[in-house]
Amino acid sequence: MTERRPTRPFPPMGAMTSGPLTRRRFLERAGLALGAVAFGPALLAACGSDDDSSSGGSSGSGGGGGSNDIAISNWTSYMDKPLLKVFEQATGISVDYREDVNDNNEYFAKIRPNLSKDQSIDTDGFVLTDWMANRIINTVEWAQPLDEAKFPNKVNMSPALANPAFDPGRRYSAPWASGATGIAYNISTTGKEIRSIDDYLSAPGTKTALSEMRDTMGLFMLSAGADPTTPSYAAAGPAFDKLAKAVDDGEITQFTGNEYVGDLGNGDIAAAIAWSGDVAQITVDNPDVRFVIPDEGGMLWSDNFMIPYTSEKPAEATEFINFFYDPANAAELMAFIQYISPVVGVADQLRTIGGEAAELADNPLVVPTEEFLAGLTIFGSLDDEQEVRFDTRFAEISGSG
Amino acid sequence: MSETSGTVTSPGGRVGRGLINTAAVLALLYLFAPIFVIVLFSFNEPKGRFNAVWQQFTFDNWLHPFADQGLVDALFLSLQIAFLAMVIATILGTFVAIALARYRFRGGNAINYLLVLPLTAPEIVLGASLLTLFIEPNLILFNIQFKLGFTTILIANIMFCVSYVALTVKARVRGFDWTLEDAAMDLGAPPVRTFLKVTLPLIVPGILAAGLLSFALSIDDFIITYFVAGPSEQTFPIRIFGQSRTATPPQINVLATMILVASITVLAVSTLLGQRRQRKMAGG
Amino acid sequence: MTDRDDEGRKTARVAPWALLGPGMIFLFFFFFLPLYTLLRMSLSSSESRFSDPSFTWEWANYTEAFSQFGEQFFRSFLYAGAATLAALVIAYPLAYVIAFRGGRWKNLMLGLVVVPFFTNFLIRTLAWKTILGNEGVVVSVLRTLGFLAENEGLLRRPIAVIGGLTYNFLPFMVLPIYVALEKIDPRLIDASRDLYTNTWGAFRRVVFPLSLPGVFAGSLLVFIPAAGDFVNSYYLGSTQTTMIGNVVQNQFLVQVDYPVAAALSFVFMAIVLAIVTIYARSLGTEDLI
Fold it and tell me: What ipTM is given for this predicted complex?
């Protein structure tokens, strides 16, 4: 047998850092560095996680972590974080509060796969707009009844909202907040006031609309002379055409969920179809931003709190909503988020708090007057077939569908 | 050895040289522009919820880097997933690599080609197809119901890492002197023991490298994870994506900068160590 | 002595499959099977929007997909092509300089190319949104120079999206080209310098053609992910710049219209598969990893 000196098996680790660098080697080095290193911040994070927490809630154990911890999914700008802490202390229930609802359809798409197969979505309550609440409660039946015993403050619910067609007697839902859809704009960019959809379309600068079909189409239907309370695809034709033209001409460049808020605040957008309470919070950062209900009318909507059927904590979840139906708490909440409260007696409470809050009591966007409400319409309900046609055409126009 | 970086004396040549060098420098600047912005804005004190316009300098963000609890939790989840995916994908992939490198068998080429496919497939297709799998009411023969959540995220991450590991380890193992094994077995060692005591230790560095590669891939993955994540699990990229619509806290920049600095350090250290090792080995 | 081939491999029947087993079974279930379910979904339809779609040989999904979204399909390939070209133009000089002028600093320079990509993909793209925003330096300079009107910006336009795509996949172009250039036998370069009086000629006739495998590999590695991306268009674009990725994401995760989205994805995958197979057959898979 000839003797063979074993050749070096293969380049040792050191050679990874010299010699010709193939894509493989690049990725290896990347892997080594990134991998070995990402641990650092994480370890620090684990140690330092009791640092400040500005995003409210418990330490993220998710719904069902402790014995009575709950997880709530809500839209952004819908909570006063200190108030949430008051709730936690008063009831001993820890809340994992997530602002992960950006758009009704998007949230529905997220929960659909699990809820359609009896699987948990790790949430004990979510807040969705009327028409989606209708779908959740009636069409797919994914909501469970609220625990009446834990909801004594239900009597404070505004009578106007207490018996909607989609949930008579409010057994499955409770309105969280109502608001108006109108136009928000940055006066320093547009240079002039905006009073209608036509003004909005002809204003200079970047403009966006809402990806919520009923909000955007509602305004455009009003602008085109159609009636959104009894919507039909045929009658909405001219409104769709108007919207399509605006998109084709480049007047409207994006359809957003909550994203418009930041861009409006920092001047990247000139005008946007927007939600009333959002603007209140932008104005704090940027006083040039104004909100207006178009002359031809704006939209009124409500967002509703519901409990998914997979939740095992309906009692605690109901306690959560009950807390916010106490007029004092409701007033404090509305003083911060500046939407329309579903609770009776909030106006008086605001005046009691005094200061800026008292001024809000006179702001029709927060405490609406009859006159103000007269200028707003609610988008009527659509049956399945009509809804598909509306959604399809809207998706076509908004580009990503 | 002849000069390959040739001495060019013609004026046209020198201009050309200058142009190319400038182009290269510009390219490097281009590569670093966003990094510069990211680091810079980690020191910004934004007025509103978005860290998009420079206001003023502050150290606050660095003093409280973990202020955004949701972000920290998301990073933690990403790390957990990446770690588990790394372990499992490395095991699976290494076995595949050894099979391909050590044996010649029918179907070897086909397997090679099949392994390349997940690497080159676009992420949305990988994500979308996995989603269609996970929502199937019953999986043909099995009656498994997948719940979108931690498990599905993990499966997805393992999937796209296995190919990388397999091909990486295979490439590193190529050139391995398998006759070492023969020698060991000649000396009486049983095959399994040979493998464990002779072969494995020598290919471990390659396996480690592939493992760390899959860790890095998994941590940064967004698109595939986004499709298969459930409503409540948020990995670091998913959290940023969702949150970026309504707020971009400077802590994002801080965490990103921390990871960046640490990566550079590790890279520098490993390069220096490698160079020293090379010199040692060359020197004797 | 066991029978080994040139690469040291033993012929065997059973052992390799035992080793391959777990990994390949995993890939079977979670890569190949999903492609099948994707295909099935693309041929399905559902009675209402909320029930799971069922398989009905619904070929109409494909025609519908193209009539509604053909534009996005075309646009994705257009943008990806532009990004690939841009990446090539930017990457080639860099790779050239590193390969031929790098000397001792080669590894450092390669490291520099790689380092920016240690930050998260989304964060990088958001940084571009800041850089190209109306309040940023770039727009101000371009406005002063007259390239942009007073109210015009760079964001929400194709150029921003293509720019983002180019940036995000640049290293995948730099590295293969670098490797290809490095592999060129130095003697060939010397010979070419002797034959051609100027370096440009030497480059055009010798160096560049020899680097082509790297160029092709890099182009493949940039084009495919760029065509399937949606993040760049999402952050930097507008409704007029939506790409296949945006449509698939929107249809799956917002509109919940799985069948049509599946049809789109499947066609996209088929095209990619064709490209990769052609590439693998002609150039081999070595340069890709």
Answer: 0.84
pLDDT in tens, A213-226: 999 999 999 999 99
Stated as kind and residue range, the H or E segment containing C26 is helix C15-27
Q: Residue A143: helix, strand or coil by DSSP? A: strand
Hey, is C56 helix, strand or coil?
coil
- Crossing angle of helices B11-41 and C106-114, in 10° steps, is 40
pLDDT tens per residue, range B76-111: 999 899 999 999 999 999 999 888 887 777 877 888
- Which amino acid does the sequence have at A59? S
- pLDDT of the residue at B205: 78
The SS3 call for residue A128 is strand
CA gyration radius, chain C: 24
Which residues of chain A have a CB within 8 Å of the CB of C217? 23
pLDDT tens-digit map of A242-271: 999 999 888 898 898 877 887 887 777 889
> In chain C, what residues touch A247 (CB-CB under 8 Å)?
239-240
Q: Is C97's Cβ below 8 Å from some Cβ in B?
A: yes
Residue A297's contacts (CB-CB under 8 Å, 6 or more residues apart) are A219, A222, A375, A376, A377
Q: What residues in A contact C176, CB-CB < 8 Å? A: 23
> CA of C99 to nearest chain B CA: how many angstroms apart?
9
Q: Which DSSP helix (H) or strand (E) runs through A174?
A: strand A173-186
Q: How crowded is residue C247: how many other Cβ atoms within 10 Å of its Cβ?
A: 28
Report phi then psi at B58, rounded to 5. Answer: -155, 150
Q: C110 CB near a chain B CB, below 8 Å? A: no
Contact between chains at A38 and B259 (C-beta distance less than 8 A) = yes
| Beta carbons within 8 Å of A155's beta carbon, 6+ residues apart | none
Mutate to test the interface with C, among B31, B168, B236, B260 (most CBs of C within 10 A): B31
State how far the Cα of C267 lies from the Cα of A391, in Å rounded to an integer.
24
Q: How far apart are CA A139 and CA A132, in angstroms?
A: 10
The answer to whether B224 faces chain C, any CB pair under 8 Å, is: no
pTM of the full structure: 0.81
DSSP per position, A273-324:
EEEHHHHHHHHHH-TTEEEE--TT-EEEEEEEEEEETT-S-HHHHHHHHHHT
- Amino acid type, A325: Y
pLDDT band at A21 (very low <50, low <70, confident <90, very high): very low
Q: Is B87 at the interface with chain C, CB within 8 A?
A: no
Q: How far is A235 from chain C (nearest CA, A)?
A: 23
What is the C-alpha separation between C140 and C158, in angstroms, rounded? 19
Burial of A27 (0-12, 13-18, 19+ CB in 10 A): buried
> Which amino acid belongs to residue A25?
R
CA distance A217 to A231: 10
According to the model, what pLDDT value does residue C285 have?
59
- The identity of residue C245, as a single letter, is G
- How many Å apart are CA B223 and CA C243, to the nearest integer? 14
CA distances from A64 to A150, A312, B69, B81, B218 (A): 19, 8, 18, 21, 27
- Residue B279 CB-density burial (10 A; 0-12 exposed, 13-18 middle, 19+ buried): exposed
CB contact under 8 A, B52 and C4: no
Residue A143's DSSP bridge partners are A308
Q: Which residue has the tokens 């952004």?
A: A76
What is the DSSP pairing of strand A271-275 with strand A289-292? unpaired
Q: For chain B, which chains pass the contact test of at least 3 CB pairs under 8 Å?
A: A, C
pLDDT band at B154 (very low <50, low <70, confident <90, very high): very high
Is residue A351 a contact partner of residue A128, using CB atoms and an 8 Å limit?
A: no
